[in-house]
Amino acid sequence: MKKIKFLVLFLCFVVYTKGVAQCEIKNRVQADGSMIYYFEPAVFYTTKSKSLKINIVTDKEHYFVALQPTPFPEKKVGKKIKDDLIIHLADNKTYKLVHYDTQYRRNDSIMQVLYLIADKDLESFSKYEAISAEINMQGTEFVRSYNFKLHKNAIAEQLKCFLKKEEN
Fold it and tell me: Residue 93 in contact with residue 122, Cβ under 8 Å?
């Protein structure tokens, strides 16, 4: 009987910690003094020649999809990336996210491109998994397409965490 109680207690602990770990929101102060909140990027696509990490970033007013493509162009060329992101969700609709900013971080070892999620699309992005994306990589190739294989529901899960936290 004690073993069963211990097992139940252990399983409750594992389920609780898994739920809390999924909503581990981090924050960082920007150069302008504003605070941003984000999750660690999840790998959505990877091959020997290219990969794509994605996460949600917010300033608590707007929500952004942050892409970290590899390989990425040098700063001079990368700053020319201004086109919008086309993303397909599991609801069989195509969404166009407006380009917001292209950043180089950690001594230019990471390139991050931010795309604004329209307020009207927040509900869809928090419900449906991401299927694919198309990015115009400006100067490196024409359009880079990614058919997501990994962590397809990470965008929805991260948005749910942010929206849930706002409700409380």
Answer: no
